[in-house]
Design goal:
Distance between the termini: 28 Å
Shape: globular
CATH superfamily: Electron Transport, Fmn-binding Protein, Chain A
Strand content: 25-35%
Structural class: alpha+beta
Number of helices: 5
Number of domains: 1
Largest sheet: 7 strands, antiparallel
Order of helices and strands: HHEEEEHEEHHE
Oligomer: single chain
CATH class: Mainly Beta
Radius of gyration: 15 Å
C-alpha cells in the first residue's frame, strides 16, 4: 500500500517531535483536548489532528473508579478482520494511561472510527500476541519503540473487537 504524500513529508517531523522528552510533558495536556474538540465539532468525520499521519479513533471507556464515560483519542491499527489495535503509550511517560486501567476493569467500550460508532470488547494482548503485532504497530508509528524505552515499561496493547455497530457518530 503506497504511503500518502502527507505521511512521507510530515511524518518524520511529527515523529521526531512526538518522540522527544519535552513533548511527553506538554503533548498529553494539549493533543487529547484538541482531538476531542475536533471530533465533537466534525461529528466524528475528523478524528484527530494526527489522522493524516496515522489512523485514529476515539475510544470511550467506563472510568475504573468513577464509572463515568471517558473519551481518549488514540492512534490505532485497523485490522482486516474489523478489529483495532491500540497502544497505551501515554506519550512515553512512566505510568500507563488511565484508559488502559479503565479497559482492564471494564472491557466493554465504544469506538468512533471514520464517522461510525461501534461497541467493542477490549482484550489485553498476551506476550505472544504482542510479539506478533509489534512490528506492524511500529511501522504505523515508529515512535512506539522510543516511548517504550523512555517509559521503562512495556506498553499495553489492546485488541478492540466490535460486538455491533451503534450508528453514525
Amino acid at each position: 500500500m503506497p504511503v500518502p504524500l502527507v505521511q512521507r513529508t510530515l511524518g518524520p517531523v511529527f515523529q521526531r517531535i512526538s518522540g522527544s522528552a519535552w513533548f511527553a510533558k506538554v503533548g498529553p495536556k494539549i493533543v487529547p483536548a484538541l482531538d476531542r474538540r475536533l471530533h465533537r465539532i466534525t461529528r466524528g468525520r475528523v478524528r484527530s489532528i494526527g489522522q493524516a499521519l496515522v489512523p485514529s479513533l476515539v475510544l470511550t471507556t467506563t472510568g475504573a473508579v468513577s464509572r463515568q464515560p471517558r473519551q481518549a483519542p488514540l492512534a490505532c491499527l485497523p485490522e482486516p478482520d474489523g478489529t483495532w489495535l491500540v497502544v497505551g503509550s501515554n506519550f512515553g511517560r512512566e505510568k500507563h494511561p488511565a484508559w488502559t486501567g479503565n479497559l482492564l476493569k471494564h472491557p466493554a467500550a465504544e469506538v468512533s472510527f471514520e464517522g461510525r460508532r461501534s461497541t467493542v470488547t477490549a482484550h489485553l494482548l498476551t506476550e505472544e500476541e504482542r510479539e506478533a503485532v509489534w512490528s506492524r504497530l511500529v511501522r504505523v508509528w515508529p515512535v512506539y519503540d522510543r516511548y517504550e524505552e523512555r517509559a521503562h515499561r512495556q506498553l499495553r496493547i489492546f485488541r478492540l473487537t466490535p460486538s455491533d455497530s451503534v450508528d453514525a457518530a
